[in-house]
Automatic annotation (TrEMBL):
Highest classification ranks of the organism: Bacteria, Pseudomonadati, Pseudomonadota, Alphaproteobacteria, Sphingomonadales
Pfam families: DUF1214, DUF1254
Residues of the DUF1254 domain: 98-225
DUF1214 domain sequence ranges: 362-470
Cited InterPro entries: DUF1214, DUF1214_C_sf, DUF1254, DUF1254_sf
Organism: Sphingomonas populi
Signal peptide: 1-34
Keyword field contains Signal: yes
Protein's recorded name: DUF1254 domain-containing protein
Keywords, comma-separated and alphabetical: Signal
Endoplasmic reticulum is among the record's keywords: no
Length: 499
């Protein structure tokens, strides 16, 4: 989904819980010297040995807990627990807890529910409290149209995704249960079991062109979420109460809000055996599943160490977002998809910039922050991206490149074009079948506007989406081409040579 931090203006009760969306340097009001783990780049460096050191434990709690808090922030921003039935913009698919929300327009620069929203599909979204279930999700026949339904866990990972690639044009009913459910699924239904109390359901339905919207709206309207009451018995879902993240409280020091929020999440958490050992170690810094975060357990020196650990933990996560896996031509691609195992740092980095990506079989997300010479992308420079005919993105569904401000928002522009790809109206291929894209602030003119992806006059990032990628993309045999600075000679032709 990749969209709460940097999102909608938060509701009143959670307005103050955006600290994890800030750059790490903004967490404390005064600069703090980097600690011994500040340059760590791998999970093993952070979690290799047992420790009772407050700084180390704070780094670990920040890295391990960041995705849990981001997921909880997204849930609370989407469901608005203090005003669950408030009206929502048409570009977001949010609704009250245990209810379906349906976006009616593609994401635009006013879409502020999370980070890096796609501009290819309409979302159908629900956040479920599985203690209020079981639930039954019914979907229509989508025909030849691309669709997928993702079931995202409370730690931002995804173990279940079903759609066109798995079931063709029609899904069976989806029976959604929590970790405590011990019964069977109704006959003919597909069971999805959540590891935790809360689960996100995110449907994506392709909008190939603006004229598609009425058809997609009809499909959305035929998606139904019900409470399962027994064989052949369905009822309406209920809207239950949620724990408001503790970081929203005015009495929580800004520097410690990340741990306060994590403490709230942990009170509903069902840890694995390995997590139980880790959580037990966090008790030394005042963090428990029973009581959340207790600042009173820290003396002055411990508090200073914990604050430094939070800052460094966020810096470590931010640095990891620049290298999510394989680097090629300035693009960083994670081939782990939406399952992270024990790689807590990768999980946190993906949650920071791309929370709730789908399974790698469903989509890959190469991300670029730099050009072909390693310089940060900036709209005061013009760039081209050249695909040879033999090197176009290898997909079984479709592909796109979306441009965002560095903070993950879509960029306003005169064309109202926020992404470009194989469905862009009028996109022009060269005589040799190649494709040259222009990424810059000014219209490239001379018949090149159809291939222009407008950029702001400041830093930005690019995210490519490969929906249903072919084997060459999934194995790393294919890589996106380099993002090259424009020189005079490069504007004389619309053709690209073989890469």
């Amino acid at each position: 989904m990749s969209q709460v931090c940097r999102g909608f203006p938060p509701t009143s009760t959670i307005r103050r819980s955006l600290h994890l969306c800030m750059a790490a340097g903004l967490v404390l009001s005064a600069p703090v010297a980097a600690g011994p783990l500040a340059d760590a780049t791998k999970t093993e460096q952070l979690f290799a040995k047992r420790s009772t050191d407050p700084y180390t434990l704070a780094v670990r709690a920040t890295v391990w807990g960041y995705p849990l808090v981001r997921a909880a922030q997204l849930r609370q921003k989407a469901t608005q627990p203090d005003n669950p039935f408030a009206s929502r913009p048409q570009t977001v698919a949010t609704a009250a807890l245990n209810r379906l929300g349906r976006a009616r327009q593609l994401a635009d620069p006013d879409t502020r529910i999370g980070v890096a929203p796609n501009n290819d599909t309409l979302y159908v979204l629900a956040f479920l409290d599985t203690e209020d279930g079981p639930f039954l999700l019914d979907t229509p026949d989508f025909g030849a149209r691309y669709y997928t339904f993702q079931f995202g866990e409370a730690d931002s990972s995804t173990h279940h995704s079903y759609g066109q690639s798995s079931h063709g044009h029609k899904l069976p009913p989806i029976f959604i249960v929590g970790p405590a459910y011990r019964g069977a699924a109704p006959e003919g239904a597909l069971m999805v079991r959540s590891d935790q109390r809360y689960l996100m359901v995110a449907g994506r339905i392709l909008v190939a062109r603006a004229e598609d919207l009425p058809v997609v709206h009809q499909l959305e309207d035929r998606i139904a979420l019900s409470k399962w009451l027994g064989p052949d018995r369905l009822g309406p879902t209920t809207v239950s109460r949620q724990r408001i993240l503790a970081g929203a409280g005015a009495d929580v020091p800004e520097a410690l809000k990340p741990l306060a929020d994590l403490g709230t999440v942990l009170q509903d958490w069902r840890p694995t055996p390995e997590e139980s050992q880790l959580l037990q170690s966090f008790e030394a810094i005042g963090l428990t599943r029973q009581d959340g975060f207790n600042l009173g357990r820290l003396n002055t020196s411990q508090r200073a160490a914990v604050e430094a650990g939070i800052v460094d933990g966020l810096k470590i996560i931010r640095a990891k977002t620049r290298n999510l896996g394989a680097m090629a031509n300035g693009w960083s691609t994670s081939y782990s998809g939406s399952t992270f195992g024990k790689d807590y740092l990768l999980r946190a980095a993906v949650a920071m910039d791309q929370i709730y990506v789908v399974d790698k079989d469903e989509a890959l997300y190469p991300v670029a922050h730099v050009d072909s010479v390693g310089a940060s992308l900036d709209g005061r420079t013009a760039y081209t991206i050249c695909f040879a005919k033999s090197d176009l993105p290898p997909v079984n569904a479709f592909w796109s490149i979306t441009l965002y401000y560095a903070k993950g928002f879509l960029v306003p522009n005169s064309l109202k074009r926020y992404s470009i790809g194989d469905r862009t109206p009028g996109i022009a291929y060269g005589k040799n079948g190649s494709l040259k894209l222009y990424v810059q602030n000014d219209d490239p003119g001379a018949g090149k506007t159809a291939n222009w992806l407008p950029a702001p006059k400041e830093g930005f990032m690019l995210m490519m989406r490969l929906y249903r990628p072919k084997a060459s993309a999934m194995t790393g045999q294919w890589h996106p081409p380099a993002i090259k600075r424009t020189v005079a000679s490069s504007t004389t032709t619309d053709a690209c040579s073989a890469q």
